Automatic annotation (TrEMBL):
Keyword Nuclease appears in the UniProt entry: no
SUPFAM superfamilies: alpha/beta-Hydrolases
InterPro entries in the cross-refs: AB_hydrolase_fold (IPR029058), Dienelactn_hydro (IPR002925), Dienelactone_hydrolase-like (IPR051049)
Residues covered by the Dienelactone hydrolase domain: 20-227
The organism's place on the tree of life at top rank: Bacteria
Keywords linked to the UniProt accession: Hydrolase
Name of the protein: Dienelactone hydrolase family protein
Molecular function, one GO term: hydrolase activity
Length: 230
């Protein structure tokens, strides 16, 4: 077992230094996966996702996009998200990918990316921006905003969304599916569950967590990561 299976790390990004939470499997090595936070910040829920991935044999890195700030207040979370420069976040995430691919514990030539809510949108953007560096992109209840260029996506894209998610209407999801397909030439797989927003988050205060559906989505996510991140 490695001496430091879980640790806070720093890495160069966009001419500065970014930070994150790194979880390494007991074997000491494995394929790399990036975990991207919800608008609440790098919470214990996101750390738990990284730990669960490490337990499945992955080296998981959760970048801290808010510089240490976390909240469980939706108004404050909205303010933190609004203050987050999208370009800066994208560059920090690109730095995280390079850090992970260069880490001695990572055995894969590509990374998988899993993100939630705000982070789900970043998953799709990262897959487009980083091309062949990302081989599996798994957004949970998050879509892209605006009209980004998605032609660079080469990854397998598998999304998880709730039918009762008022933040993501089903017509918006259909439009995203069409845009990814038309832009990249590869159709994503979007799983839709009879659930609300953040149904995977067992710490959410919205009362939408669904243990059975969360487990189903998790099993699908693991299968996609294990099949494609090498």
């Amino acid at each position: 077992m490695p001496e430091n299976p879980v640790q806070n790390v720093s890495f160069p990004s966009n001419g500065s230094t970014a930070h994150g939470y790194l979880a390494v499997p007991e074997s000491g090595s494995g394929p790399g996966v990036i975990v991207i936070q919800e608008w609440w910040g790098l919470t214990t829920h996101i750390e738990d996702v990284a730990n669960r991935l490490a337990a499945e044999g992955f080296v998981a890195l959760a970048p801290d996009l808010y510089g240490g700030a976390t909240t469980h207040d939706s108004e404050e979370a909205g303010e933190l998200m609004q203050k987050l420069p999208v370009e800066q976040a994208a560059k920090d995430l690109a730095g995280a990918v390079d850090f992970l691919l260069g880490h001695e514990a990572v055995t894969s030539a590509t990374v998988g990316v899993v993100g939630f809510c705000m982070g789900g949108g970043f998953v799709i953007t990262m897959a487009a921006q980083l091309g062949d560096k990302v081989s599996a992109a798994v957004p949970f209840y998050g879509i892209v905003q605006g009209e980004p260029d998605l032609s660079g996506i080469t990854a397998v894209v598998e999304g998880h969304f709730g039918t009762d998610d008022q933040m993501i209407p089903m017509d918006a999801l259909a439009a995203l599916e069409k845009k990814i397909t038309d832009s990249s030439g590869t159709a994503p797989t979007f799983h839709v569950y009879e659930a609300g927003h953040a149904f995977f988050n067992d710490e959410n205060l919205m009362g939408t967590y669904d243990a059975d559906l969360a487990q189903l989505a998790w099993n699908r996510t693991l299968a996609t990561l294990k099949a494609n991140v090498r």
